[in-house]
Amino acid sequence: MEVEVAQASDLRLDGSKVQARVNGRYVSIFNVKGELYCIDAICYHAGGPLTVGDIEDVDGKACVRCPWHNYIVTVQTGEKLYQKLVKTEEGKLVPGGWDSVGQRQRTHRVFERSGAVFVVVDEEGSFESDKYSSDEACGRRLVSSGGSFGNPKPNPFGARGAGGQGRGAFLGMKNLVSRVTSGHLFGADGKMPFKKPQQ
């Protein structure tokens, strides 16, 4: 089911982002050169606040770098990228080209309609980011305590769009959405905590 997470004006600028909680899952929506992308906001590797960083170009791909372990993840496909090491003629190892280890971070469908931004959570298959995607302790590190929580606006046409054959608009009311366009992390700088927080 599609869930409204933001106004289009919140994501109008290139590089802007919105953190949201949809169907219990922490996600981030990015504007990259006018295109919207949505990925799980919590890093698949160790539950870090992956999407607090800015978008950076890595080998022509828009990526976020996790502040905990510097893992680089593409916002379009959720792939983890790494830079190969190559041996020179002198036998030294130097940075080579970029490669992917495959999709680790779940991506979701996002679109704009009538001045609003909607997310459709992808729940098919299994990805490594699933293990942390709804973790409350990880979410507290991602979303500031001042974030507003409320009910999203469900699709008035039901889950299947304007045909009205969906399960009904009111099912979306149980999904909480947190819209945070600015804020801070618990731990302030997003660095990995020394001790696992109490749940």
Automatic annotation (TrEMBL):
Obligatory cofactor(s): [2Fe-2S] cluster
The alphabetical list of record keywords is:
2Fe-2S, Iron, Iron-sulfur, Metal-binding
According to the UniProt entry, its GO molecular function terms are:
2 iron, 2 sulfur cluster binding; metal ion binding
Domain Rieske spans what residues?
3-119
Query: Which SUPFAM superfamilies does this chain map to?
Result: ISP domain
Which parts of the sequence are annotated with region: Disordered?
144-163
InterPro entries for the chain? Rieske_2Fe-2S, Rieske_2Fe-2S_sf, Sol_Rieske_ferrdox_dom
The family database entries (Pfam families) matched by this protein are listed as: Rieske_4
- Please indicate which superkingdom the organism of origin belongs to: Eukaryota
Q: Which organism is it from?
A: Chloropicon primus
By what name is this protein known? Rieske domain-containing protein
